[in-house]
Amino acid sequence: MTGEQAAEDAVLAVEDVALSFAGVTALDGVSFRVEPGTVHAVIGPNGAGKTSTFNVICGVYAPDRGSVTLGGNRLTGLAPHRIARLGIGRAFQNIALSGRQTVLENILLGRHVLTRAGVIASGLRLPSARREAREGRAKAAEIAELVGMSRLLDRPAGLLSYGDKKRLELARALAMEPSVLLLDEPVAGMNDEETARTAGVIRDVRDRTGVSVLLIEHDMTLVMDVSDRVTVLDFGRLVADGAPDEVRRHPEVLRAYLGGALGETDAGTDAGTEAGTGAGTEAVANQDQHQEDK
Ligand SMILES: Nc1ncnc2c1ncn2[C@@H]1O[C@H](COP(=O)(O)OP(=O)(O)OP(=O)(O)O)[C@@H](O)[C@H]1O
Hints:
The protein is an alpha/beta fold.
């Protein structure tokens, strides 16, 4: 297989996905592609369909229409654990770590999806199980280094700072060796310093492992800072998809974030100008504030 083919293999394609709940449209014909080795953000106001998109990708929800493929393999219709095995790793917004277990043990828990030696082989301490355990620990240590937690390997997760807990959740998802890592609000609740550290980790994941990162995030400073591409949803529809700079100036994006308040007025037409960009940034900042108030 050539390098180019390998890269093509890891493309995550969401195609014409529609999803509704008892008459409420959550997603309405959403399509986008996550290119290998990129950071890709999905943004939009509350209720836009971001979490629903993640849930369709992971197999938590079956879409009414459309499909999700990874490297040409159809994920839609498969159970979540099979989708995880095929290369979709997800770190959750709500931290679900084992507090008494150490950082190393928590990362190893993330690997169980990959472990081949069964319970019996492990119990009998067969060579295959011992080798797998050794390899697992080495890999977990590598991942801990990547997320800046090498010195915390033996610390119980329950004693970590908030930021380290969130980065450990990310590390645990990475331990599954995914092609695409899904991050649900990775910097929610973090201060500026913690946010900057996490931004560095996200970039390192992309640059050092080649894993694509797909993230939902309300913190627009982070989104614009780390993303190679941004997909914007509003009321379940895709309203923009492009480089951060293009998306920030897109009239539909300004309209979505300002709740239609600007309608046909200045910012709608000025969207491509400096003034328009400023209005968008402000609107997005208001959205952040709204999140904090929730
Ligand atoms: N399990 C569900 N049952 C009923 N309606 C749902 C369910 N999940 C999502 N929805 C609806 O689907 C729409 C999209 O919701 P979704 O949670 O995907 O949005 P979101 O962009 O993630 O929002 P937020 O930023 O507030 O998390 C909303 O109208 C929401 O109320």
